[in-house]
Amino acid sequence: MADEIVFSDLPITAASTGEMTLEEAIDVSGYDELDLMLGVQQLAAGATVAVSIITAMQKEQSAGWVTAATFDTVSVAGTYQKVTVRNFLRYVRYSASVTSGGGSFTLTGLARSWR
Hints:
Layout (H helix, E strand, L loop, with lengths): L1 E5 L5 E3 L3 E2 L6 E2 L5 E11 L4 E9 L9 E5 L8 E7 L5 E9 L3 E10 L3
Antiparallel strand pairs: 1-10, 2-10, 3-9, 4-9, 5-8, 5-10, 6-7, 6-9
């Protein structure tokens, strides 16, 4: 079984380093694997964006979140990357690091269950 997983309905605009809010963290406890696609739509001249998927057992505080997967750093708009995540805890969210003016990206994919 596979369900669509969407981190944001609209492109995510980032001007600096930041994380998806704790309230928006996605419960993936019913899944075994995530196939995620990062699409970088816009980047300011000379900007780069680095996106990681972070995971934790709770979403009440920022402490205890660890990196489950990392996309390659992107410096060109129109770039797409896929990553498969198999080792995650109950919740996932993104962490983005953007330099030199920022940009926008989308993060979507499929959550799969083998049960």
